[in-house]
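Following the same procedure, backbone shapes were mapped to integers, yielding the entry below.
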Amino acid sequence: MKAKELVQRYGISTVGLVLVALGVGLSIKSNLGIAPPSCPPTILNLKWTAVSVGTFTWMMHLLFILIQLVILRKRFKLKYLMQIPAAFVFGYMCDGAIWLFNSIDAPATNYAVQILLSLASVVVTAIGIKLEVLGRSWILAGDMTTAILADETKKPFGTVKIIFDVTLVAVTALLAWLFFGLLTGNGSTVVIREGTLILALLTGACMRVTDPLLEKWLRPITSTFTPHNA
């Protein structure tokens, strides 16, 4: 692989990671519920505030990688280890996005603004995910785990993704209940609410619109990338 292609691929994927992290920050800012993959790190941060959301995020991703090792064993490919640096990079990007939005203003309280922030998170996250895919460099452990589970169970990726996300939300609700006696958060910060449903359902729908636009815009670059099987 040429150096120029390597820089382009990691550049595109890194921009994607930044946008997904900004989506996390926007969803937390909305205080209307956040995307399922960010629910467990956020509720853990509310319990142990000395540990950042980003730190809990990369810790969760390392757990996902261990799950992959247990499932695949000798079939675990060396390239999957790229999930480790991706976990650290993404985790601290999330911290940066949260800090950025917290420095601007307090969490939203106006319902219309909360909905708008949730929808903005949907669009930013949808674009970010597609850029990750187009770059084909950084690999986030949550997506890889879902793909492996889908392959192992012979179920459609979309079906397994729904089950995976529902499981993360259920675990978060259980932790919230154990920690704070509530199912949605700690009473001041909302982790699970309608914003969670908005992000879970609309991100994929948004990608149906944004994906073709991004593919067309970046085709002059991505068409020169070395194929997966090369």
Observations:
- Residues 3-222 form one domain.
- The chain has a mean pLDDT of 90.
- The CA atoms of residues 109 and 229 lie 50 Å apart.
- Helices lie at 3-30, 39-47, 53-72, 83-104, 111-135, 141-153, 157-180, 194-222.
